[in-house]
């Protein structure tokens, strides 16, 4: 990878953020991007924007007003701990193969999600609030995300994923997580255009139980002119794009959009994990106590934001993590989700 470092800064949580010339970021090592520069911003989807209902979270490293210089992009420095956490250096940055929306008891992935399918989708948008769930061990995780999906669940699945960890990260694949794709900027693929958002860096501030609530907006949509899939974070901050040539099915459109939470349950102690999803509390507890997604929308072929139709809920293990959906004039379509994992009903 060719990379010229202009400057770096250290986040309060210990992360180092490198400011790299934008045309020398990892994406431009890809043969189809050699010698190019990031594209100009596309036309945003039209209609149905909602006012903010909770204070917005951004990122810890920018809390003091820091950002990278114009013409550069912030890249979180990969650490030895990051690599050791993975099963091997070769697989660092790739997910283990898994089924995205079905019960995945065999490999330990569990979900509490809302999804739509059966139509052609050109993007998705939602606000989700930020928590710091407890994770039992280093081989498990808990995340909240938007999946943009096309293809079958065999070996040609295309996905784009944008997540709240409470680190903000992205993922893409074109073959159901087998060999292609990666997290963040760890391979040639995603082209970053923003100098204020470091993919993989911590989100701040975070919500507290029965206290102040903080959320972020995420939108992924297909540029109707060039076909690339763009990512927006917060209130209108364009982060960058996945070039259309990366994908097979997603070169056209998605056939499923999914919102919600996912955990890994390794059963390392012989029982269900205590890894939390969302706030660690069930959906029935509601605002200020349970995690939520609000103002869920999809993007149609004419670049319009539309409310969801024919939506469905899925909780793989509802005694461990559940989901409840609702609708009102302020939040549009929304749902609460999550849970504590191991409990008397989830042994």
Automatic annotation (TrEMBL):
Pfam families: Neprosin, Neprosin_AP. Residues 103-347 form the Neprosin PEP catalytic domain. This is Neprosin PEP catalytic domain-containing protein. It comes from Rubroshorea leprosula. The lineage of its organism: Eukaryota, Viridiplantae, Streptophyta, Embryophyta, Tracheophyta.
């Amino acid at each position: 990878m060719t990379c010229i470092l202009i400057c770096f800064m250290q986040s309060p949580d210990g992360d180092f953020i490198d400011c790299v010339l934008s045309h020398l970021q990892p994406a431009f090592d890809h043969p189809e991007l050699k010698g190019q520069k990031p594209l100009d911003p596309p036309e945003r989807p039209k209609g149905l924007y909602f006012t903010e209902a909770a204070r917005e979270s951004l990122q810890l490293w920018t809390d003091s007003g820091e950002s990278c210089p114009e013409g550069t992009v912030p890249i979180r420095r990969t650490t030895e701990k990051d690599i050791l956490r993975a099963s091997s250096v070769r697989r660092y940055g790739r997910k283990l193969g898994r089924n995205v929306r079905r019960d995945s008891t065999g490999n330990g992935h569990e979900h509490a999600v809302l999804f739509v399918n059966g139509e052609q989708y050109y993007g998705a948008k939602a606000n989700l609030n930020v928590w710091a769930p407890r994770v039992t061990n280093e081989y498990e995780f808990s995340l909240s995300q938007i999946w943009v999906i096309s293809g079958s669940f065999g070996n040609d699945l295309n996905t784009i994923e944008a997540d709240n960890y409470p680190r903000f990260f992205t993922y893409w694949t074109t073959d159901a997580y087998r060999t292609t794709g990666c997290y963040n900027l760890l391979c040639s693929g995603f082209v970053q255009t923003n100098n204020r958002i470091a993919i993989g860096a911590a989100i701040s501030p975070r919500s507290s139980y029965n206290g102040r609530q903080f959320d972020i907006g995420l939108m992924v949509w297909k540029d109707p002119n060039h076909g690339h899939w763009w990512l927006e974070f917060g209130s209108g901050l364009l982060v960058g794009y996945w070039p259309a040539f990366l994908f097979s099915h997603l070169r056209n459109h998605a056939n499923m959009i999914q919102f919600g939470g996912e955990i890994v349950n390794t059963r390392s102690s012989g029982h269900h994990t205590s890894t939390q999803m969302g706030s660690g509390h069930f959906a029935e507890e509601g605002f200020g106590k349970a995690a939520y997604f609000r103002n869920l929308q999809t993007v149609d072929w004419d670049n319009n934001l539309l409310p969801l139709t024919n939506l469905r809920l899925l909780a793989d293990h509802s005694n461990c993590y559940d989901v409840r959906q609702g609708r009102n004039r302020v939040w549009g379509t929304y749902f609460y989700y999550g849970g504590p994992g191991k409990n008397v009903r989830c042994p």
